Amino acid sequence: MSYELTGNGDVDVVNGVEVLRRTQRESWQTALGQRLAVTDVIAVFGAVAAAQVIRFDGPAAPPLAWPLPYEIGYSVVSLALAGGWLALLHGYGTRTPQVVGTGTEEFRRLVSATLRLFGVLAILALLFRVEVARGYLAIALPAGLIALVVGRLAWRWRLRRWRAKGRCHIAVLVVGSPEAAQAMASAFTGDPGSGYRVVGVCVPAGSVGAQFDTSDGPSVLGDDRSVLEAVRRSGADSVAVAATDHLGPAELRRMAWALDPLGVDLIVAPGVADIAGERLTNRLVAGMPMLHIDPPRYERAKSSRKALFDLCFAVTVLVLVAPMLVAIAIAVKMTSAGPVFYLSERIGRDGIAFRMIKFRSMLVDADTTVEALIERHGGNPLFFKVKDDPRVTTVGRFLRKYSLDELPQFFNVLRGDMSVVGPRPQVQREVDSYDGEMRRRLLVKPGVTGLWQVSGRSDLSPEDSVRLDLSYVENWSMVLDLALIARTIGVVTRGDGAY
């Protein structure tokens, strides 16, 4: 089949089909890929050069020890090693647009390519009886991998800054039933770091404009049979398909064919939410992709490993901040009448009540007016928070902004009532309003910090607070705890979302 290429400006035509010659997305993705390549070259060559200099006390080095009568210096070895390393990084797709800038897949590929390189080196050295200086490799491997990761993190930080300024976005058109499309559009909007910007929605015929909320979201551009027209109208770079009864496997295949000449990606959502990647396994059954979802990890969040980590972390924090605790106690005592600490009943794991300790940030009679405040602000007892709360003291407002009032909760961790990371501690009136789903929050200990802390703190809606807590309970891992602790430090030091 022959194709004729015609057209001008930004659009070409192949046999009557419009083709975007070079979209804005392709432009910035290509530029970013080139910059990543330069960073990788610097990291790899810098690592092998440093390994040679450190191991052999300078650039000069003895020849490689091997049985052949030819002398090869370590400068040649370093060049070959760096070239093979960069080739594997390219072969593993570490700079493909699908993995760059978000998630952990980019770093997984970096590690896999690096380990594969040094695994191949070990096999070659064994087969051909080549004696490569172990100290040289022991320096080059970790130094190169660390430099690669640091370089990617630096560009990821830069990319987030660009996206915060409205640049480097992927325009996405969401297709699906009103409910599913609403959820997907909200997911894209709630994760600006992913780089997706929803430019429109297509919903099944009969529900256009009827059930999809467009008050503060994207416009409905048509039904799920007019996706191509909506793509042209919106300038979308990708089409994300959510659950809909009208699009089966055959329709999705035809949609992929139609989008291909336009240079538009197709994304298919599996219809599940708040599932950690570690619980997902891709499988092909008779040519059809399937997602296997591992069971929730409730029991893992109760493990002795987590309890030991909590104990060690709490002791370390309390030792480090002991002078600060004394200073805060003096400030609270001198600026308002009442005790230094505030003891509040919270509901812990398995619904067992305990006394949570905090620095007092409110007036001593604050609890006597809480019911009136709840009624005045809508009467919703779940996750009750109010800005400019008249009960908060001047010092208490500062403590709350930077979560300093919560430092004594590490004593609760030592007592075993709380964990360092976990769901938000609940009061009895909130637990009384729980349904069966929400009671899953009580399967693990509440935490000093958690997903709620790094995702908006007091700015969260009750629904988002519950969703994040349930997501943590079901997807627990030690890596997740460490990541949340690291993110908490940044959120707290900025004082985001606290009052």
UniProtKB/TrEMBL annotation:
UniProt keyword Hydrolase present: no
Bilayer-crossing regions: 72-89, 110-130, 136-155, 307-332
Domain of life where this protein originates: Bacteria
Residues forming coiled coils: none
Membrane topology: Multi-pass membrane protein
Family to which this protein belongs: Belongs to the bacterial sugar transferase family.
Name this protein carries in UniProt: Undecaprenyl-phosphate galactose phosphotransferase WbaP/exopolysaccharide biosynthesis polyprenyl glycosylphosphotransferase
